[in-house]
Structure formats: structure tokens, C-alpha cells
Amino acid sequence: MAEMIPTPERMKRSQRPMPEQDPKKRVCNFDEVPLGYTTEDAIYEAQRCLQCKPAPCVEGCPAEIHIPQFILKIVEEGFASAYLEILKTNSLPTMCGRVCPQEEQCQRACVYNKMGKPISIGRLERFVSDWARKHDTKEKLPDSKKKSKLVAVVGSGPAGLTCAADLAKMGYDVTIFEALHKTGGVLTYGIPEFRLPKKIVGYEVDKIKDLGVKIVTDFVVGLTKGVDELAGEFDAIFLANGAGAPQFMHIPGENLNDVYSANEFLTRSNLMKAYKFPEFDTPIKAGKKVVVIGGGNVAMDAARTALRLGAKDVHVVYRRTKEEAPARAEEIAHAEEEGIVFDFLTLPVRILGDEKGNVTGMECIKMRLGEPDESGRRRPLPIEGSNFVMQVDMVICAIGTAANPIVARSATSVQTNKRGYFIVDEKTRATSREGIFAGGDITRGSATVISAIGDGKKAARAIDRYLSSGGSLRKSKK
Amino acid sequence: MYKIITKREIAPNIISLEVAAPLIAKRVKPGQFIILLVDERGERIPVTIADYNRENGRIRIIFQVVGKTTAQLSQMNEGDELFALVGPLGNPSEIDNYGTVVTVGGGTGIASVYPITRELKEAGNRVISIIGAKTRDLIIMEDEIRKASTELLVTTDDGSYARKGFVTEILDEVLQKEKDVKKVWAIGPAPMMKAASEVTKPHGIETIVSLNAIMVDGTGMCGSCRVTVNGETKFVCVDGPEFNGHLVDWPEFMNRLARYEKMEKHSFEAYRKVCGEENG
Ligand SMILES: Cc1cc2nc3c(=O)[nH]c(=O)nc-3n(C[C@H](O)[C@H](O)[C@H](O)COP(=O)(O)OP(=O)(O)OC[C@H]3O[C@@H](n4cnc5c(N)ncnc54)[C@H](O)[C@@H]3O)c2cc1C
Ligand SMILES: Cc1cc2nc3c(=O)[nH]c(=O)nc-3n(C[C@H](O)[C@H](O)[C@H](O)COP(=O)(O)OP(=O)(O)OC[C@H]3O[C@@H](n4cnc5c(N)ncnc54)[C@H](O)[C@@H]3O)c2cc1C
Ligand code: SF4
Ligand code: FES
What we know:
The structure holds 2 protein chains of 2 kinds.
Chain A (H helix, E strand, L loop, with lengths): L6 H6 L10 H4 L12 H9 L8 H4 L7 H9 L3 H9 L5 H7 L6 H4 L11 H14 L15 E5 L3 H12 L3 E5 L8 H4 L8 H13 L3 E3 L10 H5 L4 E4 L5 E2 L12 E3 H10 L17 E5 L3 H12 L4 E5 L11 H9 L3 E3 L2 E8 L5 E14 L5 E5 L5 E3 L3 E4 L3 E2 L3 H4 L26 E3 L2 H4 L4 H20 L10
Parallel strand pairs in A: 1-2, 1-4, 2-3, 4-16, 6-14, 7-8, 7-14, 8-9
Antiparallel strand pairs in A: 5-15, 10-11, 11-12, 11-13
Chain B lengths: L1 E10 L2 E7 L1 H6 L5 E5 L7 E4 L2 E3 L4 E7 L3 H7 L6 E2 L1 E6 L10 E7 L2 H14 L3 E8 L8 H7 L2 E6 L6 E2 L2 H11 L3 E7 L2 H11 L5 E5 L15 E4 L2 E4 H4 L2 E3 L5 H8 L3 H19 L1
Parallel strand pairs in B: 9-10, 9-13, 10-11, 11-12, 13-14
Antiparallel strand pairs in B: 1-2, 1-7, 2-6, 3-4, 3-8, 5-6, 14-17, 15-16
The complex binds flavin-adenine dinucleotide (2 copies), iron/sulfur cluster (SF4) and FE2/S2 (inorganic) cluster.
């Protein structure tokens, strides 16, 4: 068994880097890019942890993971109990370990962060959960007493899954309603295989089903049944339908044949497995010269997918600079290593095409940064007369998503703001209608997996309070 | 889960299926559609709900074999189960008592126009229906439409049955004769819907078409189905599928329908080869 090492030596060590697939090879496959820590890597990194009391890192974690405790168990090589320690508060550790922006969460709060070398909490989390999956560990949380109240969850993304899992752990009878034929939300249809393998998402969803959660797929709340109808059948409802409606730029040429929203492009590739066409039936175009519009994680995922589908030349155009780009630094770095070219301070004004609808180019204008705007970022301003045309044959628009109104329309007296997001109490996730709660992207706009998980946890707690104090949606009047 | 209860080939390569889908059967209204998946590797394809029975919980779909997925679907039998089925999607048709209305169905569009026709008549309208197909064998649902409408006119492109000519020619004649048509529904292949819209435009009669755009999710999440209507981008699955035909950007719509032509052909040919080998 490994042991804790003396503090001065701990402090001397630097962060253990993540082994990765070689950029030249990985652009030709859809396999995962970061390979994961070896046991030796994990122990080495875990030994650095100072076991702070109280631990500031935990404050930075919306999933409330007992961070020093699980890290200590890694040092002691008790990987199964490390997994159980995480599972107590987070039902999706394999995903969090891969896609959470730890640099802005737990690792930012870590005492080592001032020295620029926080503990790699995310990599350790991934190591532990991968270990558990590979060893098919049977470790389980103790069963709790079954309760008779029924809870409906709308959407099977990270917010819905977390809320359902937490409620099931408390003994509630939970049913998730999902519009698509597969569960996982953005984890399944948005984030590509090379960042989050789908069999892992499936594994984690199965674990949640093992807790007793029922999942009904192919059920569009608002069309198959409305929220109002569900309110007559369940004691409480959690709305977690995400913010999946793609936005466009409203520039000429946007409906040409080879102009995709990132959502369509990624859904075809990830959900429908179009990258395996014709083995799978859904087609996808593979442009030769592709340009992606946007600067977030979604743009990076679209650009890197286009490359793997066979594009020779992939550009990302973004109207501000690298510093303002909302994508994780790690994702921009991965994209750059793979040969993706970034055109910062560039704004598309028009997409050009022929009479058959094929894209032949995209006209852009150069930008410069002016005074800061409401978001505190410097406002990009066009430079008159700097227009130029990029020769491209495919355009992917990744400029963000908005609320889809289908769910809200079927929910009487659940208030939304003017952008269509549910208005909730920050702490309890309660909406304006008693017994109905909401969380994740449909309450915040496009955010993160971890904030969705945090919302799911808060809602589960509030729903438990509501139900244990005698509340029941189906017995109450509208 | 979604069991095929009955299957009938109602015309060469045109198949009618009744599927158990109680939740959908309970809520569906004319004009809405479903999306189905034949198997795990399949494509999500939209099909109009041609009929429904709220009591026994069944919906009926009618499709033509045009590519791999519809060919696979045509190989399924009574008792088999679809991998996925979701709906009812899209907005229902705006049914009201308008007075005199005309419904036009071309090819499998006849199936789509049927529930609308029936509902319009039940709402008190005088409904003149026009249905047409390439040739005699391909005329479907003639008896059902006759019962559902006030008056039925049938055409075939080759004159092998009833009147010779396109449905749009008959539509033109009807509009010359009938001076008080309030609204027209025209559903069928895109060129037919475009032509029908051109016929009605000089008469200034509102004309509703149901667009068969290429879809993925069918719930407003991808934008694959987008179309320009009156200069604005709309999503067929959530803003439609019915639109005012006079305002649709037809050239753009037809270009977008051909987006995956080459890959579809490839996939269909590969499938036929495999099936041919298995069967022969
Ligand atoms: C391409 C991409 C990459 C991303 N990368 C990262 C990343 O690296 N790190 C990170 O932290 N975040 C990332 N995000 C953001 C993150 O994925 C989201 O913030 C998060 O998934 C939101 O979770 P959610 O549970 O609120 O909603 P979603 O994950 O959107 O799930 C909502 C679910 O509800 C279903 N649904 C919608 N409408 C209905 C209805 N009417 N009835 C029934 N079900 C319905 C949807 O089908 C979906 O399954 C990324 C997003 C995208 C698109
Ligand atoms: C709202 C709506 C209602 C429809 N109702 C009916 C109906 O009642 N009966 C019927 O026979 N057909 C209907 N269709 C068309 C039907 O969806 C296509 O025929 C089917 O998808 C073809 O699939 P395939 O794999 O057999 O053929 P493919 O070889 O894949 O394609 C043949 C043609 O079908 C269209 N198509 C292909 N994939 C899709 C897709 N994912 N979504 C939409 N269109 C696609 C394309 O224009 C293509 O050129 C409807 C389409 C829509 C959008
Ligand atoms: S703050 Fe850093 S060093 Fe301290 S317990 Fe958390 S991970 Fe370990
Ligand atoms: S099919 Fe995806 S938005 Fe309409």
C-alpha cells in the first residue's frame, strides 16, 4: 500500500501530466484523446494532496464531492472505496472527470493553485471512476427505505439524471421522461466520442437505473403529454429539458445546403453515429474546407469532428480574441495541436453559394476591440472596408443555443423570463408553481455539466423537503 | 414497445401499417406526424399520421419505399416492434368552418391529406378533394377519401385511370368553376406543392402545404429542417409542418431536400445488394 509522504516532499512535486493520444494519429480516429492516468500516475498525484481541513476545494465543487477523502483512499490504494466516496454525492463521476472545467471549480479553490499547480482533481476523479467501471465493481451505496411518492423528471441530461439519482437514493419512485431515443442529453448528442465515449455515458445511466429510476424515452413533454397532465399524476416535477434550440446569425446564405448548426452536425455524428455511415444509416457531409463560427466548447467539438470526418482544412472564426473565447483553454489547445486554424477578430457577414445550394465561400469582416460591454469583455467593432472572402465548402454555426418553448407552453403558471428560461429560486430551484422545480441549462442558458449537476442536487433536496412536509402536486390545485 | 398490429401493401411499394401507440393515438390531431427508428443503427424518419383510433390506441402510417429506411420498414411484419416511435410532432392543421375548401393529395400525400379532409368535412365545410398519382395502381385510399369529402376528383398522369393529367390541372379547373373557395390544402411531392401554390396564387386563395423537410430530432433542436418562409427562417418540425405555400422559398427548399442524395443512393444500393443476396 502506498502512503502519504512528508509535506515538504509533497510540495516539491509538480502536477502529473495527462497522457494523450498523438495529435497526428488522433485526427484519424474518434477514440478518446486523453488516455487517463495509470495507477502509478494517480498515486503520485494523490500523494501531493495536503488533506486540508477544512478543504477549500470542496467549496468549489457544486457536486459537493468529498475531495480530500477520496484522494486519501487513492493513496491507500482503496480504489473501490474511493469510488464509493465520490458516488455518495455525485452520480456522474466518469463524465465530470472528463468534461468539467475543474480549473474554474475545485482546482481553482485548491491551496496549490496559487503556486500554479493545483491537484489534478478531475483526472483523479476520472481515474477512480474508470477503475470502478473496468473492474465492474459491485460497491453500492446502502439501500434506503422506499417512499411512496412519485416524482417526474423531464429530460435525461446531467441535471435530470442527478436529481433522479439523488431522489432514488432517498427512496423516492422516480420516472425520467426523455424526448430522444437515447438518454444523456448533451453528454450523448453533443459532446463527441473522442471527449466522452458513449459507452461510458451508457454505463453511468445504467448505474442510475440500478438505483430504481425508470426512464421513458421517445416521450416529448409538451407533445406526448403536457406538464399539466404530468402534474395530475406525480407528486413533484423537476424540469431539466436543457436549452437545445440552435441559434443562427441571420446572415444571407445561412440556409444553403452545407450550412449546419453545430447541434445538427454533432447530433448526426454523436447521437446517430453518422461518422460510421453507411454502417449506421444517418448521413453527414464531410466538407473539404470547413469553417466553424464561434469560440466555445461547442465550436471546438464541431471543428475537431469535421477534421475527423476527413476535412483537409478547418478554420474557426471568432469575433473576439483568444482571451475572450469561452471554450476551455484545454480544448483550444487540443484543437490547435490537431492543426485547426483560428481566425480571431473575424465576423462572418454572408455565405456564398451556387444555384444548387452548394457553399462556395464565406465573406467576413475584420474586427477590433473597443470599450468593455455589459459582460465586461471588450466589445468587438467592425473595421470598415476590411471585408474578405474565405474559400470554404461547408459552414458550421456554433454561436449558442436558446430555450425550446415546447415544455414551458404546456406548464400553466410556471413562469419564464423573456428569453424563455424558467424563473427559479437560486437555492431550492423552485419555480413559481408549487411542486414544480427546474434546473440546468433551461434555467441558466447554456452553462456547464457541473452547474446542471449542482442544480439537480439542490432540487432533489428541496423536493424531499416539499414531499416530506406533506406537499403533493397531484393533490394540489393549479 | 411499438408493435406493428397490421400491415397491408395498398399499392405497389406503398405500405400501410397500424402501430400500437396509445399515448399518440390519444392526442394526435390531423396534420401531425411521428418520427420512427427501425433499429438501433437506423435513421430517424418522419411520417405523417394518416389515421388514428383513440379507442384501441393505434395509429396508421402509410409510406412509400424510396430508400433504405423505408425499404427496411417494408420488410417488417405484423407482431414486429419498431425500435423507437415518438410523437405526435408538429402543429395540427387549422381546422375551422371556412365554407368551401379544396384538399389536394399527390402520391403518398393522399395519406397526409386524408385526416385533414375528414376533419374539415366534420367541421361543416364543403370539401372538394382532388387526388392523383402517376398511374392507376398508385392511387391509394380512394374509397376513404370519397367518404371523407363532399366531392372527389381523381387523376392519373398517364390517363390509365379516371382523368388524365396532373392534380394541379384539375385544381385550376375547379378554381375557375367554383368562385367561393376559401382555402386549399395541397400535399404531395415538393414540385406538386409548388405548382399548386402557383395555380392558387392568381386567385388569391390561401394555400396550405405540408413540407417534408429532412429532419433529425423533430423537436426544434437541430435546424436540419429549416426553410425560408416569407423571408424568415422557420423550423418545419416545430413551426410547421404546414405553411402558406405562397410564401415558401421553393428553390431553397428543393435544394435542401437533395442534400444527401448521393449518400442515400449509396446506402439504398448497398442495402438492396445485401437483401438480394439473402433472398436469392
Ligand atoms: C457540444 C457541446 C459541448 C459541451 N462541452 C462541455 C464541456 O466540455 N464541459 C461542460 O461542463 N459543459 C459542456 N457543455 C455544456 C453542457 O453539456 C450543458 O450545460 C449540460 O449538458 C446541461 O445539462 P442539462 O441537464 O441542463 O441539459 P441537457 O444536457 O441539454 O439535457 C436535456 C435533455 O432534455 C431532453 N428534452 C428536451 N426537451 C424535452 C421535452 N420536451 N421532453 C422530454 N425531454 C426533453 C433533451 O433531449 C435532453 O436529453 C457542452 C455543450 C455542448 C452542446
Ligand atoms: C413531416 C413529414 C411527413 C412525412 N410523411 C410521409 C408519409 O406519410 N409517407 C411517406 O411515404 N413519406 C413521408 N415523408 C417522407 C419520408 O420521411 C421519407 O420518405 C423517408 O425519410 C425516406 O427515408 P429512406 O431512408 O427510405 O430514403 P432515403 O434514401 O434516405 O431518402 C429518400 C428521400 O427522402 C427524404 N428523406 C431522407 N431522409 C429523411 C429524413 N430523415 N427526414 C425527412 N426526409 C428524409 C429525402 O428528401 C430523400 O431524397 C414525410 C416527411 C416529413 C418531413
Ligand atoms: S485544496 Fe487541494 S490540497 Fe487541499 S484537500 Fe483539496 S485537493 Fe487536496
Ligand atoms: S428536425 Fe431538428 S429542428 Fe426540426
